[in-house]
Amino acid sequence: MVDENRVSGAARDAFGRVQEAAGNLTGDNRMQARGMYNQAHGSAENMLGQLGDCIREQPLTSVLIGAGIGYVLGRLRIL
């Protein structure tokens, strides 16, 4: 089962690559920057989808990791 974040992230990343290339060809720095932004946003969205898939596949491991991180942060008194 593929998470919708992975699909939309891949699409946004591909659009960002095209947008950056168009900005390079036309010399439009603004379009190039938007393309780079869309690539970064798409990659982050794809990673979020991968994380969701991992949590669905291994829920117990995910809970234990989260509890461990919470314990360490609690001991450091960051929160």
Write the layout of secondary structure elements.
Layout: H1 4-26, H2 29-57, H3 59-76
Helix pairs in contact: 1-2, 2-3
Organism: Pseudoroseomonas ludipueritiae
Domain CsbD-like: 5-55
Protein name: CsbD family protein
Q: What attributes characterize this protein structure?
A:
YjbJ_sf, CsbD family protein, mainly alpha, single chain, 89% helix, 79 residues, CsbD
Provide a compact summary of the structure.
The chain has helices at residues 4-26, 29-57, 59-76. It has 79 residues and is mainly α.
State the helix count: 3
Mean pLDDT: 89
Q: How much of the polypeptide forms β-strand, as a percent range?
A: under 5%
- First CA to last CA: what distance? 35 Å
Rg value: 18 Å
pLDDT < 50 runs, ≥5 residues: none
How would you sum up the global shape? elongated
Provide a descriptive summary of the structure in words.
The chain has helices at residues 4-26, 29-57, 59-76. With 79 residues, the protein is mainly α. The radius of gyration is 18 Å and the shape is elongated.
